[in-house]
Amino acid sequence: MAIKVFWTQTALNNLEDIFEYHKFKASVLISRKLVKRIVHTTILLQTSPELGRKEELLSHRKFEYRFIVEGNYKIIYWVEGNYIKIATVFDTRQHPDKIRNI
Predict the structure, then answer these.
(1) pTM of the full predicted structure?
(2) What architecture is domain 4-101?
(3) Which of 45, 76, 91, 94 has the smallest number of Cβ neighbours within 10 A?
(4) What pLDDT, on a 0 to 100 scale, did the predictor assign at position 1?
């Protein structure tokens, strides 16, 4: 059975915020490229769901959260059955303790 990537509403909102921020600061073209790179990176998880390292700041949670990095963004996810669920896209330039709030 194939593994599918599922984006939570929080993660989709993060992508939209990233797009809007870079559209304002740089350009629509740069925003599109950045969001495409983030999404493409998550597709790699379909064949290697444990590609990312464990997110230690979320080790107290029910699921085992893992992350992969694309540019300045940490893509945090968990594996549940045949799904990879993208929890959030976190800007690594923020204080890491903010991850605990997801």
Answers:
(1) 0.92
(2) 2-Layer Sandwich (3.30)
(3) 94
(4) 57
